[in-house]
Amino acid sequence: MQRTDFSAMACSIARTLDVIGEPWSPLVLRDVWVGLTRFEQIQADLGISRKVLTERLNHLVEHGVLERRPYDRRPRYEYVLTSKGTELVDLLMVMAGWGDRWRAGEAGPPVLYRHRACGEISRVDLRCDHCGSPMHATDIDVLPGPGAP
Amino acid sequence: MQRTDFSAMACSIARTLDVIGEPWSPLVLRDVWVGLTRFEQIQADLGISRKVLTERLNHLVEHGVLERRPYDRRPRYEYVLTSKGTELVDLLMVMAGWGDRWRAGEAGPPVLYRHRACGEISRVDLRCDHCGSPMHATDIDVLPGPGAP
DNA sequence: CAGGCTGGGTTTCCTGAGGGAACCCCAAGG
DNA sequence: CCTTGGGGTTCCCTCAGGAAACCCAGCCTG
Asked: Which chain B residues are closer than 8 Å to A144 by Cβ?
């Protein structure tokens, strides 16, 4: 985990990292996303230490990214994505896209994504929400915003 | 940082985290992106320990995300994004988008992005690279790919 | 041409987070 | 009752992060 507290920085990247920047957090989120929603399942899938998994889950719940809820009359719980968390999955998809492109190697990507709307195996692409044309790092200017320091 | 080695996992998210998952790495990348390309600049801007900054920069260079190059006949160096690194900035933009939306608070986002193609202050949106319609976490099915374990 | 200055690190030491394994609690079920 | 299994806690050890001091190679200045 980061020792330094990122949440105080006037930077939305740092603030996002404050929520999912700790080691394992994105992978925990991915597991919940693909349907591994219980402590034992996630622990077994990732091989993460139980202590750390407890910490991560609590942190994600505190930040409103996951919701912890009982699924039995016994004390059994599962973790589900909130809408805030579901939007974080977009980030995971972009991460996966980069990994697919640059680190998949000979074997090719371990998973494929099928877009339900068109039925095609496709990749995610970044577009401008105004004009709809591609919007990548080199296509933009960065300006100070209202919350600038 | 993570003790566990993510690079061996058959997961493109984990493989991406192996490159930029360590604390500070995304912020180092952001700094280089916005033009803080020298050791002293980055160190001063982030307040990161010099030791850790050295490690992160070396790691990013080893992975071909940054390139280290001299800018003087004295032993002075600057770090610049490779194309592999520039594509990672897309990830930073999505991160910033989430932080803007969920954690900016009253003050509003600290920075704005102007899309050069249309001139508008806009946000990045995820689209299907086939059909061009929105492609978010809930719009896709995940299937095993050729590199599946 | 000795001494400073500057950028870019390296070293040292201390603390605390991650890993691993053992332990614990509670509610069924047999 | 005793076991089983999910969901955690506790303990201990090691190693990564933070802070600050130190180092070195070239200009630059007196």
From this structure: 110-112
- Rounded CA-CA distance A146/B135 in Å is 29
Residues 12-41 of B with CB under 8 A from A: 12-19, 21, 23-24, 26-27, 30, 33-34
Give the pLDDT of residue B1. 37
Closest by alpha carbon to A39, among A49, A24, A53? Answer: A53
Nucleotide nearest to B39 (CA to C1'): C8
Q: Can you tell me which residue has the tokens 């990013």?
A: B60
Q: Which of B16, B102, B111 sits opposite A84 (nearest CB)?
A: B102
Asked whether the beta carbons of residue B145 and residue A108 sit closer than 8 angstroms, the reply is: yes
- Residue A49 contacts by C-beta under 8 Å, 6 or more apart in sequence? none
Mark which residues 123-142 of A lie under 8 Å from B by CB: 123-142
Taking the C-alpha atoms of residue A36 and residue A79, their distance in angstroms, rounded to an integer, is 9
pLDDT tens per residue across span A94-107: 999 999 999 998 89
| CB burial string B92-126: b at 16+ within 10 A, e below | bbbbbbbbbebbbeeeebbbbbebebeeeebbbbb
Contacts of B14 (CB under 8 A, 6+ apart): A27, A99, B6, B7
pTM over 0.90: yes
